[in-house]
Every structure is written in structure tokens, then in C-alpha cells.
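Work package 3, deliverable 3.1, input record:
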Amino acid sequence: MLGDLTPTIKIYDTTLRDGTQGEGVSFSAEDKVKIALRLDEMGFHYIEGGWPGSNPKDMEFFELIKQYPLKQAVVAAFGSTCRPGVPAHQDTNLKRLVESGVKLATIFGKAWDFHVTKALNTTLEENLRMVRDSVAYLKSQGLKVFFDAEHFFDGFKANPDYALAVLQAAAGAGADAVVLCDTNGGSLPFEVQQAVSRVVRQLPGVPVGIHAHNDGELAVANTIMAVQAGATQVQGTVNGLGERCGNANLCSVIPNLAFKLGYQTIPRENLVYLTELSRFVYEVANLNPVANQPFVGESAFAHKGGIHVSALMKETGTYEHLAPELVGNQRRVLMSELSGLSNLLYKYKELHLDKNSPEGRQVLEQLKNMEHRGYQFEAAEGSLELMLRKAVNGYREPFQLESMRLILEMREQQPIYSEAVIKLRVGEELVHTAAEGNGPVNALDNALRKALETIYPRVADLRLLDYKVRVLEEKAGTEALVRVLIETGDGKKTWGTVGVSTNIIEASWQALADSMAYGLLEEQKLTVTNTKK
Amino acid sequence: MLGDLTPTIKIYDTTLRDGTQGEGVSFSAEDKVKIALRLDEMGFHYIEGGWPGSNPKDMEFFELIKQYPLKQAVVAAFGSTCRPGVPAHQDTNLKRLVESGVKLATIFGKAWDFHVTKALNTTLEENLRMVRDSVAYLKSQGLKVFFDAEHFFDGFKANPDYALAVLQAAAGAGADAVVLCDTNGGSLPFEVQQAVSRVVRQLPGVPVGIHAHNDGELAVANTIMAVQAGATQVQGTVNGLGERCGNANLCSVIPNLAFKLGYQTIPRENLVYLTELSRFVYEVANLNPVANQPFVGESAFAHKGGIHVSALMKETGTYEHLAPELVGNQRRVLMSELSGLSNLLYKYKELHLDKNSPEGRQVLEQLKNMEHRGYQFEAAEGSLELMLRKAVNGYREPFQLESMRLILEMREQQPIYSEAVIKLRVGEELVHTAAEGNGPVNALDNALRKALETIYPRVADLRLLDYKVRVLEEKAGTEALVRVLIETGDGKKTWGTVGVSTNIIEASWQALADSMAYGLLEEQKLTVTNTKK
């Protein structure tokens, strides 16, 4: 229910809309669907999917998301009020909102007199008409409507009566909530608190939201102060993505509200997925996670000082403001870089690898060296397991590469032609074959499958699900080191493999070869081992 | 003067001490000197150089810095109170502080009863003795002394009387300031405000400082609230470097205090060097600057939304909380699917592109379609400008590709061999050449340069600075769409270019070709245009 008076704070995520205003942030419609589903699962109340009137990609998202039954999240479409001089029912932008098929529209309108006259070039009275008329029109079409009062805090400072009149126009026309936006992001916590208190007093019964930007590095504080002053809806983005310095970071707002102030936000039991959510969104956005990000960053509970560590051993509360497990994060002690690897070895207990045996030490050394050279095994446990098997129990790959040749040809105005020729030793046989593809890696993948499939029919079940490239040491231009991560599945489970090289083809080959070898681990026992002496 | 009652807020920088507790942060003694000199020049009041009792590198800094006449900054050495049961004058740690030769010592002591009994294993009374005794000893040695009350806010919540008694012990023994530390970084703005107000009332005449950590993403807000409640000294670090989630970020605290609240901090005329200071410290620490960092980040005044840009053209105050020049930063306009024609017009005024002309609309349509297909122009303004020039003023590239062939060969146990053969039309000439590389893209880059350099000597000045690959629609495996971004520079300026294809080589070629074409824009006017009919 909207606007009840319990201390539940509704979480309104705008990662998919305002978040994409951030520099370097761009999501495909499919990316957006993935994120929306994750937010729904976590119990977010509202998911703003985009601005259907502004570009085709956003409209595509609204079409796609309809195919998924969401648990409880309400999808919102964003837009503006009608333009000056145009009746709401004739406004294209508002029509698009209705056409997008959502149940909730969030529209913004001006709350700062200066903006009305300067940016919009219209009268203060006409702006009130636009707000009223737009809200009323969308309500008449059966939508819920949230009204985002743009620049509310600047407007409130300049002309409080007018800023409040804008909110009253929206509320009077039936808006289901009014949201106070610190659009330029420069307001201070006490200003936000005072303004929100005034609005809550002035508009009894109307749910009030807060939408803060981080230009003063105060978005989280401003959001919290607004809630303490009576706001019941919080708008923000995962990891604080957003235009300029970003929006209020929900990964910080939510745990502050839930653990520090005792508000109900998303279900308490889902807060342990917060760290995973943060990293998932960085991954989809292809951004590097911010290590020192509060609550969810890799360094958020990393202790370096000797005094801190020794005190922590006595009592974790001594140097931690919160138990890291509560948000799905973990404590790290930076002195022992090897602890992560020990954990990995623990995972592969069935290989009976002893950390203190010569083999164990050697594998650890090798792993450390590989990580130093840019390998990363967290998302590539397939490659890791193959390496451990080679080291400790004489595992041999189901095939060895003899040679490989890739040829790419491009002529003006024609599509590029990609061909791979490979010669593999598979058990006793030597297989020499070739295939085309729509790119070099795809050609290589096709040739490898062709070479293996007569001997290992299971290859047909293996699907490459994901292919990722990251350029390491970016400043080296086209000579840089490249890491390729591949995710493969057989319909039952999935595994990741990794390759690193200055040559993207070589890195891709390493990851591809591992992906197949790992997928054939079981079948290999049934065939190759039998045919060998 | 310490503790006068004017609204001057003293800035105490601990980048060189607490900042180095951050993961991945490490400074040599020389690095520290470089930073200290810069801080002095900017007018910072106090520079905490290290903990002479804890490691030799810190002692080295105090030796080195003596050789430089600082303008006005006071260098501080950090340490702890004496240990339980040890008289201050016999404590090695305190002796080191005196030996370091500084005029100001900052020592921390426990203000949380739980810590006294749990971490320190002593009595509450003995802890008060340690504080009193240590401050008095350092004062007797002619030093100014600041007392850092560790965990003050947690202590104040748990046992306010004891927390205040600790401060009184320090003040009574002659401490020149008491500094309230939110050591675990989890306090909330209103808690900080209430506690500081209480301390200021309780200790009239004693200067009060604030030392906040960012574990709740609230360090800047907590610092500001403390100042508003009467604190007159602010401790923090440049860029918020520091243990776990970092310390209060002085690059945000200072402009908030100076521009938003009108306090005197460092001299007003030096605030224009804030952005430079931030980047300088990142550079020395060998860390990547945080693009969306408030005030000083590269994206801090970067505008992406079309509505924002069209309003900015009328009046910059419409979407900026502060003029970027005040902190030495600058406004940027980003291109993307979210931006309308306004952004384009604003950026490329000199191309005389008319928003209402058929060409103007066509370019915008083309741009939107390309972005829908995965192109991204905010980091690729070189490609964008070339596209606009083609559309509006008959620009022709300095070369056209006739054909290209790439051959990669790999044999077991041997490094992969990469060769590119290209045939280009350059003006009237047909150039056919080949080159090797350590990867396919590098080979292509080398061949392209070889083909161009005899005709365009400027090619030798162009450097590829960065190469990025992003797999779009990741779930399509090796058939996925790939976007390549390249950054190129000529020593004076840099530009980005983009390519998109299912074939990584084709995408790389597009971005490479654009990077050279853009770099040759000027030279082309001088040569090709002249040689052509």
C-alpha cells in the first residue's frame, strides 16, 4: 500500500534510468531486464525502467519485462509533465508513458521558479497547470502517479511558497506520492531536513519521497535526514550510479536505514544479498567495483593496521561498525594475501591437496604467480580445478593442440571473413579440420567443436553462455594484456574458465580449451582412459 | 592561533598517516614530502606526517621534511598515549614523538569504556591516568598536543560520562585541542551533531576537532554537522583515502564548508587548485582517479541528459550546484542516446549544425540508431565528430581500406604469430604493406601506421593510450556483439574512437581507423586536400 504510516520505507530504484545518466554507464535492454529481475527478487518496491518517450531502447525494455512475472516489484516508466501550452492528453511524451503499459508513471515537473521562467520560458501559473493537468491525465488513464519535484530544495530556498504550491498542485490532482528532488545535488543535510519537515506538515496524508544526488558527497546523509524528517519513499541507484557524481547509493542507504535506524525496507533476510547485488550491477555495467565502497566494497571490512587486527581477534565489534555478514560481505585481514587461496584449497578437499606438502606449496606458488600475471580464478573455477588436477593427480586434458591458424579477410564494403584451421591430438587420433565463424573466436570455437564431436558426443551439449574480455594495464594501448573469461553450461551446471595473454586470440583459446576440457571431465573417464594403455 | 572563536575552520590533513592505511595505498618518504609541500602551498593548517613509533619510513619523513621551509603548515607526528602501568616519560612511543623533532604531537587514547576493558585490558581509572600523564609529558617537552579521542561517538553512546571524562582529562592536562574520532565510521549525522554540541558546552574554551570515517558513506556529512555544532578543526584526507572505506574526504569537506556554509578554511584563492591537488595525490599514490568524485572528479560536472544541456545553454546555474571553476574543475558535455540534439549543437557549434535542418535531424536519427546497435559516443567523441563532419560538410577520410588480411598461427609450445596485410587508398596512392604484432590488433595497428607514415608524418606522433573491449549481449557466447573503445593522444590532446561488430577484429579496425583519421584532421587540410583536384 502506498503511503501507510508504518515505518516501512519504500525503496524506489532508478539504476535503469537515472543510473544510466552516469558517464560510462550503458545497459542494453537485456541487461536492464537482468537487473530488474534481481531487484525484484531482493524485494525492491519500485523499479524505474526508463523513459519511453526519449529513446527506443527504453521502450524495448518495457516490452521485454512484460514477459516476466515479477514477484512484487512495480515497474515505473519515467517522463515529464506536458509542455507549456499543450493539454496533457495531446502530449506525445505522456502518451508514450501510457503506451508503455506500466501501472506506475513517475513524471517530473519544475518546482523552482527560476527554472520555470528561465529554462522552460513560461509563467509560474502555466507550470502549475502543466503539473495538475499531467497528473490528472495519467490518473484518468488508470495509472498510479509519482510526482518528482525537480530542483525542489533549490526552489524551496528561493521561493518556498511556490515550491510548495507545485507539490500541492500534484497532490491535489491525485498524485500517489510527491518526491523531493535535489537535482543539482548540492543541498546540505540540515537544509533537507528542514524542507522535508515543512512538506510533511503542509501535506498531511501525502506520501513524500526523497531523490538525492551526490554532488556534495552528501546524498546518503540527505536521504537519511529526509527519512528522519518523515519521507517514506527513497529513490536511488545501486552503487550510486548516476549523472555527474551519481545518485543516492542504495547499497549504503538501505543498510543505514535498516541496521542503524531500525526501519523496515526490503525484507531483512534479503539484506545478505546486498554485496552480491552491488557486484552484479558493476559486472553488467562492465565497471570495476569500487573497492572502498561502504558496506559492500571489497575493502569495506579489510583491516590493515596491526592494532586493529589484534583487537579484532579479541572482539570484532572493536573495529567494525557492523558485522559484514549482515550485508553479505566479509572481513579481510590484509596481511595474509594467501588466505584467499587457502579457502580455495579448502573448496577442493576431495583432491586431497595438502597446503604444506611440496605439491601443495608448488600449486600455491603457481596460483600466486598466475594471479600476479592477471589470471583471476573467482569466476573461473573450471580452470582452477583443471590446474589442481594436473598438479596432484596426473590429470591429462582430453585433447592437445598441435597447431592452429586463423585467417581473417576484409574487403571494402564486404563483411569480414573468419576461418580457423586446427590440428588436435585427441587420444590416439590426429584431427585436422577447419570452420568459419562470424568472428575469430567464434570460428575457433566452431573448429574445436568440429574436431571433438565425433570422439566426444557430449560436446554437442556444451553451450558457451558468456564471453567476457577485460583489458588489463589499460595504458599500454593495443599491446596490453587481455583477460578472457568464458562461462559454459551443459543445461545442468555451469563453469567458468579463464585465459590471459597480450594476444586476445591466445587468451580466448586458453579459456575455450579449458571450457571444453572441464565439460568433458566425466565423459573422458568413460572413453579416453579406456582406450589408453 | 589555536582555538580562537572566529569562523575559521582549521584543516588537519592525515593523508600521509591515516590515508596510507587504505588498501593499495603506499607512499615512500619522498612521496610524502612531495604531498606535504603541496598541502603547505595550498594553505592546509596541519599535516600529519606519520607515526614515528611505528615504522622507520615514517621517521625518515620527519627527517626529510625538516630541510624544507614550510610557509605556514604545522607538521604533526602521530602516536598513542603511554601503555597501562607505564609512566609517560618512560614510554618509548612518546619518546619517539619528541625525538621526531615536530612542534605538534597528536596522540590517541581510548574514549570507549568497552575498549578500555576489552582491547586494552585495563581499568577505566588507569586509562584516564594514561591520557593525563601522556598529554602533560608532551606539553612539558614544549610540544603542542592534540588529543584524538578514539571511538568517541561509540563511547559517548555507551557511557557518555566516561567519554566526557576522558576529554576532560586531556583538556585538564593542557591539550591544545580534543578531537572526536568516529573510528569505526558508523555514526549517523544527528548523533554526531548531538554529541559535538554536548562536548562544546561541556568544555568551554577548548577547541574541538572531528575525525570521521566513511563506513556509512556519511563521513563528509558527519564532519559538516560537527562543524555546525561547534567543532573548529577538521581532520581528513585528500580524496578520502584511508582504512576500509576511507576518511572524511577533504576535497569535499573544504568546498562544502567554504562555498556552501561560508566558513574560512584554506585561503579562498587556493580553492581553485583543489582539482589539481586531488589528481596529484592519485598520481603519487598510483591510483586511478575516481571519475564521479564530487567537486574534483572528471565527471563531476559532466552533463549527459539532453534537457539538462539545453537548460545549461541558457543558464549554467540550472543544473550545477557550483561553478566548476571555483574548485579548478570544468564543465563537460557527454554524448549518448539520452542526450538530445542540444548536446550536439552545444559541443560542435563550429560545425554550424542547425537543429531544425533536415541534415540535423538525420544526424540525430543516425546517432540514436547507432547507439541502439551498441555504439557509445561519450568516450568516443573522435568518431562522433568524424560522423558529423561527413554528414554536414563533405568531409572525406584521409584513407580508405581496400582490403585487409590477418593471419594468426599457433603451434604447441610456441608463441602465437600475428601478421596483418593491408591495402589502403591514400589520396591518389594505393599502399600495400604488412606488419607483425604481439596480437591481432597490434599487428593491424602496426600495418596501418606503416601504410600511412610516408604520406602523413604526423602518424609518428599519435600514440594509442588505451584499448578497451566490452562484450555486449553477453549471453550470446562467442557470437556476441563486441564494442571496442580506443583512446589516442598526440602529447597535447587525447580523443576516443569506437567500433562495434560481432567480429572483434572488425570493431577494432573501425576504432583504429577513426583514431588515425581524427588525428590527421589538421594535417589532412595541409596535404590531401591540396593534392586532390
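Chain A has four domains: 10-284, 302-361, 373-398+463-521, 399-455.
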